[in-house]
Amino acid sequence: MKIGNIEFGSRPIFLAPMEDVTDIGFRLLCKRFGASMVYTEFVSAEALVRSIKSTVSKLTISDEERPVGIQIYGRDVDAMVEAARIVEQARPDVIDLNFGCPVKKVAGKGAGAGMLQNIPLLLDITRQVVRAVHTPVTVKTRLGWNSDNLVITTLAEQLQDCGIQALTIHGRTRAQMYTGQADWTLIGEVKRNPRIHIPIIGNGDITSPEEAREAFERYGVDAVMVGRATFGRPWIFKEMRDYIDGDASAAPLTFDQKLDILEEQLRINVERIDEYRGILHTRRHLAATPIFKGIPDFRQTRIAMLRASTVDELTAILEDCRQRLGTAVSDTPQMTCTQ
Fold this sequence. Notes:
Helices cover 44% and strands 12% of the residues. The protein is of the alpha/beta class.
């Protein structure tokens, strides 16, 4: 698979762009464990044009994480074009246009998935951005606004005609938000369309190595994008890569190794920002990680973890988890606690 001049090899797996999740520390870890491409948190075009400091800071990328995409969203042609030009100065490998975010503060204002209610404007933005920059432009969107407006099969061809170099499709409508089950049948239909020659990237409900492989084999997509399943689990890319490649010799990571990774993520975030905000950036992952499932009576520990305000305090709690899980495993050999 190829986007522009970037060669990804066979069956690549991408990290989805996610607000308050895909900061540079997390992206670097996902890249280390096999993510073929990572994306920044999505960036407001309006805020970028106004040089809002917190938004501009999201453009910081590292050569170690390449290839990396920066995703922008907005509803105004001029703002999106200007934002794309600003983004290009940060030298991403891909500029991605977000026409899929369903949250009210974005879609409710006509941006993100809200653009699916104004297809002519969506296409005009895409066309103008493609013309304005030299970096490959891609799009991420959904099946349609709701079940009565499943426009993706037609929209995919229209976007391709605008000059985009890859299309990511989330298998839900905006009305579904993140509920229900992602429908991959239309993603597969787009991929099988003989008039489509750009890569099609599938997204939605890919939470395990088995589901990732099925997405490739059953629907024929060129790449798979993984979102919420990566929370507190950057090593999921290794698990998926090993399974898809049939690497039977690859040893699964132990609980200790996984906890070391989460502690490293904490250190990266604190060093990159500051102690308070670094901890906040890490909490979401600690709350979502599956590795603590084997610890008895974990609820109070989880509350303490999410209330910790210093690195020393949080590290002490994590190390206590290490000891407690080790005891639990020794007392109950059949317990599974790493999945």
